[in-house]
Fold these 2 entries.
Entry 1:
Amino acid sequence: MELGIYSFGDSGTHSTRQRLADLVAQARYADEAGLDVIALGEHHRPDFTLSAPELVLAAISAVTERIRLSTAVTVLSTADPVRVYQQFATLDQLSGGRAEIVAGRGAFTESFGLFGYDLREYEVLFDEKLRLLLTLAREEGPVTWRGRTREPLDDALVTPRALQPVLPVWVGVGGTPQSAVRAGRLGAPMFVAIFTDPAPARGLVEIYHRAAANAGHDPAGLRVASGGHMYVGHTSQGARDEFYPYYAEYLSKLPQFSGGMPRAAYDEWIRAGLLVGSPQEVIDKIMNHRELLGISRYVGQFDVGGMPAGMVDKSLELFATEVAPVVRKESA
Amino acid sequence: MSARVAVLGAGKVGTVLARLSVAAGRPTAIAGSGDPAALGLIVDVLAPGAVPMTGADAAAQADIVIVAVPLARLETVPAAALKGRVVVDAMNYWPPVDGVLPAWEDATPSSSEIVRDLLGVDVVKSFNHMGYHELDAWTRPAGDLDRRALAVAGDDGAAVTAVAELVDAMGFDPVPLRPLGAGRVLQPGSSDIFGADLTRAELLSTLDALGVAPAAACP
């Protein structure tokens, strides 16, 4: 079982320079503390510092030894798969074979306008680009490709190649069943975002495995990971109280909480499955994901809502030193 | 005979509504974008018992058609096949996720009034103010103290009654509102109803505080 963290670099009141420096330091700590994965997402909004995660991952690669360098997610619909492959192949070479991509459609839509894409095309954009990226990752030789969403490629050599024989490309799924079908048909590992109760995602995992079997993929090549918001405190009540103001602010981005997330709703989310609590509570919730969904990796969004770096560091330390060793032991 | 239900949209919301409709004993058809094999697998896992069909076929054979597609793709809904059916708008407009859609920007009417005008058929607004996880988790038998309420807003009394019966059979207390535009208070960002998962008494008192009276006819 692999354990890791992910971030969008929520700005809070911090300067971009400070947030990026904190992230690199936190990734370095995660590496030293033995966590398996650091994943960076991208949002193209002023309340987040990360729109170019591959650059930050490159900085992290220079100060870490073992930790895998991933994304959460790469908004592939509005990117060029050729360029994405080149960037992560370069990161893979720089890092000694630690790069990965989690390709997804993203939660927000700003990147469509910024990069000149039509939101109504989001389905075909993601589908075509994912297939092209997988082709680039899986096939060594020149690539010929035709599609609607970018210029054709004719015997194109895309260089450099990744250091790993096949650069891992996961498909990120937010709950849309068609996305699980796609991941299975393509035989790609699937990352599922889960914030409260993991039980409804059982259907997505079943769809994923059945779609993969129907397409003839070897079940041994399939993997499921999950991840969501996470805060670990010394005590159950302390964790809830400390994290609430930041989470309530963060979730005011959701339509149902546009006036702020009520404490009762927050407590209900924690009861249903949100990973906020003591180390033991977080251990139990990750093990529940494993039992229900068969995950072999969990990544927690560890710096939600512009918390002060001290709070983030403390939660991260508890995750790395008190949660991760127990989950590894229980899942071994 | 039970009303036949068609759900247009096999995403997060549509698959839950189809599952609830099957559980309520209604003959249920479901349509989605993309290829039929993918839809068949999705329905088999998430809404077994529902029959995958094309949108036009599903709508044509149904009494109640629930539209649950992304608003940005409303033009994929077979409007002609909706004529003469009770049509339910389960959708919401929320620009951070949908993108900015000119038809719904600066809309003072309910988004369902715009859906009605674009589809060219009468619609009833319901299911929109509870999340799909919650719709799945909160079904309760009639009389259960924990039962949650779903508002049902529309202009046509018979259509509102038909949808209210379905809501009740699915496991929620229906609260009828008239006219359709009254459903504006059910939308994201406009009141304390959206995403609040209220009981019938709580929904009624919230509506009262907003100055919205429920429609008299209650099944």
Entry 2:
Amino acid sequence: MSGQWRVSVDRDRCIGSGLCAGTAPEHFQLVDKKSTPLHELVEPDEAVSDAADCCPVEAILVTDPITGTTIAPA
Amino acid sequence: MSTGHEVMQARTYPFGDPDRLNLDPMYSKLRREEPLTRVRLPFGEEAWLATRYDDVRLVLGDARFSRAASVGRDEPRTHPRQGESGMLSMDPPEHTRLRKIIAKAFTARRVEQLRPRTQEIADGLADAMQQHGSPADLVEHFADVLPVAVICELLGVPFADRDKFQTWSEAIISTTSLTPQQIMEYLGNLHGYLAGLIAQRRVQDTDDLLGAMVRARDEDGDRISEQELVELSAGLLAAGHETTVTQLPNFVYVLLTNPDRFAELRDDPSLIPTAVDELMRYIPLGTAAAFARYATEDIEVGGVLVRAGEPVLGSLASANRDGRVFEHPDELDFHRESNPHLGFGHGPHHCVGAQLARMELQVALHTLVTRFPGLRLAVAEQELPWKKGMLVRGLRELPVSW
């Protein structure tokens, strides 16, 4: 398996702005007012990296699951 | 669940003229009895108004509600002119394309880097106010200057041009304070001014946000058009200061009319970050709910079936006083364990400058309580002059003594 992305949200940092869930509802939802990824591993999708780039507190981290390299935020 | 809005009589909205920072009691009645109600604004089509926290969050945050769908509709609004709301008339992914370009400059991390410089500016203003002597107008000497100086540095706009663009910026938040002709003229001037600064950056690159936006445009023209670039930078300059310029005197007004709360911050400034969020929750900055979201499919809100194509307004101020989420919601309490207020909105259009505003307001309050521990109103509360005909509530002057 290659090319997938790992998505994680730092719930301590998350302020529940709703940006990611409103922008990429197929990838994020708010649980108890904090963002939660719907899937830990996803196919590369600009909506996911955009959500990480737009998060006001950079609580979303998108990485390469094999190398651990950060894909977003840029 | 009811679908019969045909039989529901639309209420006139806003419910009354804004009274200082008091929220009309109709909101709490509606939250209790009729969480989704029909309203008719001075302009545009009839709309639904949501007043409960969960419903407002749904309307603002759920992708089944659209701002782009407002384009071409006779949008419910408090002012005669329609449209020109830029990013606020877009949905993801178009909205994200622009948001991404500016979002990086406004993250909590980047904003922290501006804190020392913001403190320096605030200290300078406090020195000047001391020299001027008591009493002084806090709006003129402090609140009108601090956020403008900061957004100028962030964007790369010369502070010396402040008199010009501050006049023109009012066009973006005016409802009736300016004539439609003035609004068009001021917007034209503001756009022309920014276009000039953008042209300069094509001659000489800069490392400010304007420079970054110009690079994003010139390196990949699909990301942002020239017109979007001008409108976006004008929007940032205007929104980036009109809001905080107005909210800072509101904060100080609330603290000086609740002297126990002012004393609390003076005695323990470590409470200031939570106080800033509590004041954001407590103060209804907007005069009315605005920027209706249009349902793109039938969807239930507050026990009512909203039909596809219908506009729904969400009242942030009402959501922030919802007792289902906030204990003793009408009290100003700097010790709340969690404060998920909607003062900066919610969802894709959550205020891009929220972290910047938080930082500026924290620095401002810290500076005021430490430099002016005896701060108080210099005139009777009833004599304070409030702005009229704007999207936001605020003071024209705030005379203070110390």
